[in-house]
Amino acid sequence: MPVLLETEFQGEIVWLGATPIDAGLSSTAQESLNFGFHGLTGERHSGETRASCMRVKNLHAEGTEIRNTRQLTILSQEELQRIAAEMGTERLDPSYLGANVVLRGIPDFTFVPPASRLQGPDGLTVTVDIENRPCIFPGKEIEKDHAGLGPKFKPAAKNRRGVTAWVERPGRLRIGDQLRLLIPDQRAWAP
User: Fold this and answer.
1) Whole-angstrom Cα distance, residue 74 to residue 110?
2) In terms of pTM, does the model score above 0.90?
3) Are 42 and 20 spatial neighbours (Cβ–Cβ below 8 Å)?
4) Which runs of consecutive H residues, i.e. helices, occur in 25-136?
5) What does the pLDDT look like over 65-106, one tens digit per residue?
6) Does domain 4-184 have CATH number 3.30.420.10?
7) Residue ranges of the domains in the chain?
8) Which of 64, 21, 71 is nearest to 48 (CA)?
9) What is the CA angle 108-105-149, rounded to 5?
10) I want to staple 165 with a disulfide (CB 3.0 to 4.6 A). Which of 31, 65, 98, 126 is the partner?
């Protein structure tokens, strides 16, 4: 019996990007990306391990070497459109958010269950870690080019910031590829 259930949902890749190590948060648009077990070579969040940050400060002292489950940032085009609308702008460029993948077609994407898988046409598989909660850094990137919009990002992005993920099986993604969504076969936690 499988522990991952295929859903009816597939996400079409509408945007791909990489964030060079020395480029701050902003990512650069790409037509295709090659993923290894470490994520993306030369990318800000690449590596099989990483230094712990404030997101896990209740577990580890900052800077402790831990498994890297933040290799990728995956967003929903539909949620980006809602963020932009709430900010009062027509469009929000995913590069400001350090995005790697933007998908269209999976509803309520930010809340797909942790441990869900997204699988590409060549077998590339990424594992969803958790919701990527909004912070002030994308707002600072937005503010550089759009005065007055930056501070509006964090409240507008609440519950819409996408997920972090890590590479379970290496492969390649291209604009237009479909990623099928598989979710864990278990009930929600109810202590």
Assistant:
1) 9
2) yes
3) yes
4) 77-87
5) 999 999 999 999 999 999 999 999 999 999 999 999 999 999
6) no
7) 4-184
8) 71
9) 65
10) 126
